[in-house]
Amino acid sequence: MNKQQLIEQIRIKKSFLCIGLDVDLEKIPTHLLKHEDPVFEFNKAIIDATHDLAVAYKPNTAFYEAYGLSGWNSLTRTINYLNEKHPELLSIADAKRGDIGNTSTRYAKAFFEDMNFDAVTVAPYMGSDSVEPFLAFDNKFTIMLALTSNQGGLDFQVLKDQMGTMLYENVLQTSLNWQNSDQLMFVVGATRPEYFQKIRNIVPDHFLLVPGIGAQGGDLKGVCNYGLNKDIGLLVNSSRGIIYASAENNFASKARDKAQELQEEMAFILEQANI
Amino acid sequence: MNKQQLIEQIRIKKSFLCIGLDVDLEKIPTHLLKHEDPVFEFNKAIIDATHDLAVAYKPNTAFYEAYGLSGWNSLTRTINYLNEKHPELLSIADAKRGDIGNTSTRYAKAFFEDMNFDAVTVAPYMGSDSVEPFLAFDNKFTIMLALTSNQGGLDFQVLKDQMGTMLYENVLQTSLNWQNSDQLMFVVGATRPEYFQKIRNIVPDHFLLVPGIGAQGGDLKGVCNYGLNKDIGLLVNSSRGIIYASAENNFASKARDKAQELQEEMAFILEQANI
């Protein structure tokens, strides 16, 4: 998928919603546990119920690795289902990978080729040659951590250098010089609305993936005030707030209700902003 | 495994060698490809041939994820084999994981509980609450990236703050205040010998995991000059230099030869240093 196709989807659906598929067997409806692969059955039901309201799905690999081989199998089935039924949707492996060059190439192949995800999240600490192997893949997005939503995000990401520039700003700025940097997106937590203006000054044209709405306390309007750009430029993620809206038989329709609330709020914001 | 047991192993074997199991099907002897699980057969042969010369084995997860479900299966078989045959050896999942708290807990469970690795590598960018879930596991080590061996490691890790302190120094210093910080080890590349003295000033007692010997150009003596502490405090890793010493039928005995060269050099260094 390329950027124009993503923007087109957002305009058609009036939604920049990403749904996080962070599946915990202790939180899904118990009637699903009788299936051979309850994680996949859960994801399938969520996708079926919400695909017209969202533009992206983001399974976090930790939740699948925690179930070992069977979890890896559920992840594979989920991405295959997405690619087969809804190739128009952006699929994001939230993996936060990063290693020396020849090793990062392995991760990139795993997620972009074998599993055929459209995007993967990466960590910046190891620098250019840990990220560029991901950027080498055409029509794929590499989504790099910049300013994260968790409390510990402030431990290092806002450290100022001798010019007064914070680490996350250095990360954004430096990455613009990397090969194929137009295929970058950046993770910016919804819990940090005060930083969005600064971020938009550095990366006016790139998409930002914004987690932290809902359970983590982030606010959609605050994010959009400075985060939106002429191409929309935002993917706002909600995981727990949508997929665990109910643990009863009606979980999928309740998830749809929550997704629809966010989509309607997004449609309103886009209309107000005249984008 | 705890630190005393690791130190004891090192003293018995006169070796602080870690062998990286980064298996690439294009580099292993072709006669192994007829097996159902050539990656595991390769690892088993390497472990069988070298276990008395090394104190740790470190599969890098990227090389296994690249083979999808079958790779994850090979990794599981490898760690099971290590735990069953050689429980005295330190097993390290080189995964470089890190995420928000509840998600990092998932990764920690995957590697420490389900697979029963003794140690896992993590990335520091997301700060305290991304690493502490790993540190919550008793008798396990959490090995955090500090100063990496790759060229891109210099992009952000040596950025100076307003006091002149580099990012990797801040990472080391800050992490000492985290819960169970005595279970930390740190990754420091062998290609950065000039930094070891500074690092030892900040973390005099912690173990350092040192990749970059051999293929990446690092030098064992340079590392040991300042890296050794009273408990040895070093695990020096070699991957390609050992496991791909030969691609012929004799690959395992050639790997042993390379491991022995390094072990003998280590024994000499330990003797010289009177440790």
Question: Can you tell me about this structure?
Answer:
The structure is a homodimer of 275-residue chains. Chain A has one domain (3-273): Aldolase class I (TIM Barrel), CATH 3.20.20.70. Chain A has twelve helices and eight strands. Chain A has helices at 3-13, 38-50, 61-65, 68-85, 101-114, 128-135, 153-156, 167-175, 196-202, 220-227, 240-243, 251-273; strands at residues 17-21, 56-59, 90-97, 119-122, 141-147, 184-188, 208-210, 234-238. Chain A has an eight-stranded parallel beta barrel with strand order 1-2-3-4-5-6-7-8, surrounded by six helices. In chain A, strand 1 (17-21), helix 2 (38-50) and strand 2 form a beta-alpha-beta unit. The longest helix of chain A is centred in the last third of the chain and has 23 residues, at 251-273. The interface between A and B is large, with 56 and 56 residues.
Question: Topology of this structure?
Answer:
The structure is a homodimer of 275-residue chains.
Chain A: H1 3-13, E1 17-21, H2 38-50, E2 56-59, H3 61-65, H4 68-85, E3 90-97, H5 101-114, E4 119-122, H6 128-135, E5 141-147, H7 153-156, H8 167-175, E6 184-188, H9 196-202, E7 208-210, H10 220-227, E8 234-238, H11 240-243, H12 251-273
Parallel strand pairs in A: 1-2, 1-8, 2-3, 3-4, 4-5, 5-6, 6-7, 7-8
